Protein 1
Amino acid sequence: MLVSAITNHVIPLSKRAGEDPTAEAAAGLQGAMAQALQNNVQAQAAQTSTQVQESATQQATQQVSEATRISDNVDEAFAKTRVGLQMSEMKLPDDVINKFKEGSATSEFKDYMSKTPEQRMRDAILEEMGLTAEEVEQMPPEKQKAVGEEIAQRMEDKREMAQAEKEQKDDNQNKAQVVDKFLASL
């Protein structure tokens, strides 16, 4: 293999405009790139400005809606207070007073809770029949006996229905346990 000791010297050509076409092309590309970069920066700045404006608008809208909601709550509380004050000065209508025995719902509740479950059921059955205990007491003895038998029959029916529902619930629970055991064995 032969190696040549002669070297070629490359002499750079002048870079004046108009003399070197590659220099002109490079300068043009640099200018175009600089312009594109500047346009890109301006577009990003405009987009950021738009996003900031939209964000500020959204925040302002949220603040206005929150202030409106608070104002509505204050108005509602004021209205409730005003109605409450007006109601405290008003007397209950006579039919309401009679219904709650002189306006005491608490005493009505205590009376109801002091009854045994059988008494409550008897009262409910009488109400279904359209009668009161006082009306039954004023009836002749044979009618009282007939009403008593009807009440006894209805109470027995309700007891049987409750027992049947309990048994059905127990059966469903047993079936669920069998299914659970079966699935667990798989």
Protein 2
Amino acid sequence: MATPDPLLVFDRAVLRQRRDRAARGWDRQAFLKREIAERLVERLDDVRRSFALALDLGCHGDEVALALQQSTVGRRTAVEQLVRSDLGLAFARRASGPAVVADEEALPFAPQSFDLVMSAMSLHWVNDLPGTLIQIGRILKPDGLFLGAMLGGGTLWQLRQALAAAESEIEGGLSPRVSPFADLRDAAGLLQRAGFALPVADGETIEVDYESALALMRDLGAMGEGNLVVERRRGLARRATLLRAAEIYGERFALPSGRVAASFEVLFLHGWAPHASQPKPLKPGSAARRLAEALDTAEHSAGEKVERS
């Protein structure tokens, strides 16, 4: 039997199928992508420049394009032309501008093609995230900007707990039922490893309330955001397990209204393609003023003991 590839965490063939299916009723499921796209576009407010050609990587229902259009009035940043791409053909067909079907793991664009690459709610399904970030850096022009938003490791922690408890109780074991995502503490390091200059990462949590845990699970399926772990348990989950998970969810995470809470952690990534004009860190020893002087304290050489008073 062949040894599974450790880099193949997600089943992207199934992801493509689910994306095409989700596109059919996307208008009813787009609320989370719309919110994340709006927050991502807001981060352009601090960038005082225009971008001639931009790429929306993982466009879904054109939420990034819509957010850019709605925020044009009074905005200092302008995107002159936006190219959309999506893993699924059905979503690419929904785009209101130029669009291509493209896999985030094998970008088909020429080096230094874009001034700006934006990606909202797509990169958390990439198997080799550092490799994809390297490709994004390659298709950016020097001093081009990458802005990304992806689901983080704190996403759906309530559902993870409820499913784990139910499965352990009923089936006597655990299998990955909610996909693993990156952590915030690793995000800026990934950008730096990929060669981006001035990398910044921050996180926000979006809280959504649902009628029940079963309603949440149905919504995730309709959005194409269900479990895609390659080593997931095949076939339909046992009905008894899902019903018990919903009971546990309601017991642990019910709101005063009787509905249940679901958390979506969003990691926002910000990095620039290197360029000579960008600020550079000072060389060690080049400071004009000593740190000890600025802090009004005594300076001690390495290895010198300091007595605590």
Protein 3
Amino acid sequence: MAKAAGRSARASVWLGGKVRRGGRGSAQPSGLDRERITGVSVRLLDAEGLDRFSMRRLAAELNVTAMSLYWYVDTKDDLLELALDAAFGELALPDPADGAADWRDELRGLATEYRALLVRHPWLSALAGRYLNIGPNSLGFSRQVRRVVRRAGLPAHGVTGAIAAVFQFVYGHGTIESHFLARVEGAGLTPDEYYAQAMRSVRQDPDAAEALQESEGIMEARGGDTVAEMLDRDFTFALDLLVAGIEAMVERG
């Protein structure tokens, strides 16, 4: 058991020189390279989801044999790690040289970018919890997050806790939002149509209707004419609460 766990902890495409810019030798299939394979993998994951992704399916999309892909990666896990880091490369990061930027604005920007990434790529949240996330784009994002949170003025021992509070919240919010949108798409409805239909169904059940009635005042006070507006308002307010919490901890010294 311990031996297997040790192998798992070390297993990463980013460790041990496993990442290859090209193939294994001069006889690799023409028209392929690691960047192209990774890009098509991301598009396929977006279109069909993580459960349907396979080396055989990817090879068919690239119009090559499945064995051709192994000139560039050793395993399917290696390829999924590459796709995960490629997605992190889409994040717009603040300029570290901008000394006049407010850390609050930068933190909100990073959180908003991460939320959008999780929603845009529903498969990402599962992979982010599966792998070490030590690719160059993921590490670049992590460095920017640490830099911004450290500028808030927290003591060193509180930095990782503040990062966890903000970005575990964003991870959870973005993951749930992506699951909701997947259900909506599967039902063939718009988010607003799905929400309206769900509310009508809930009101027909006495127990559920009672619970809903208890929260109607809160939901009305939140406002928002569309599902997107409601989600945005909840996300923004929750993020403001977390920023205010960091400020309060800094004041406490």
Protein 4
Amino acid sequence: MEHLLPLKIEYLLMIGVAVLWTVVYLLVIYKGYKDQSCGMPLASICANITWEFLFTFIMPFHPLQQIVTLIWFLLDCIILLQFLYYSKGMPFSKRTIYASVFSLLVIALLLHYGIAVEFHDKMGIYSAFGINLMMSILFIKLLFTKELRGQSLAIAYSKMFGTLCASILCYSLYPHSILLFIMYVLILILDLAYILLVYRQSIKTIRKPALPAK
């Protein structure tokens, strides 16, 4: 495999990905608890959990990677529990919500496995960036739906820089992949847009006049 960066830089980028994405999940859990609202879309939760399950328990490719993805898996399980807990106010029955979650988990796991086998992608890079692109889109949609409930600038920045580290690292390993390069660029653009939107929403919230006391 061709390497465009020195190994020390690659290791630093790996650490950046591991630390920053762990921070993302911790912040989502904290902000969700604080706002009593899940800060991650259900499709993203299911896609993340099944990717982490696949490459932790079924197709691990490195011991250190296995530890990191196990940590992410456990954190995403907490986020999923938050979603289920805070979904009490949704206009759907518990049976419908649980059936939807189970269906999405099965579909996501099958797709991750199929992509890994079809693309000979032992590290799950193609599906990982596919998930990331979906998350970038759905986070923006979630912002328009819930405003800042469950979301923050810290989450937005951590996601962008964590993914940027992963993009630079994977570009050094797969410099000839057009598909991956397109996803790197699209994710970065969407993440920048998300940061701007969160910032503007934060300013609006700060400037919003308090209701007069009765």
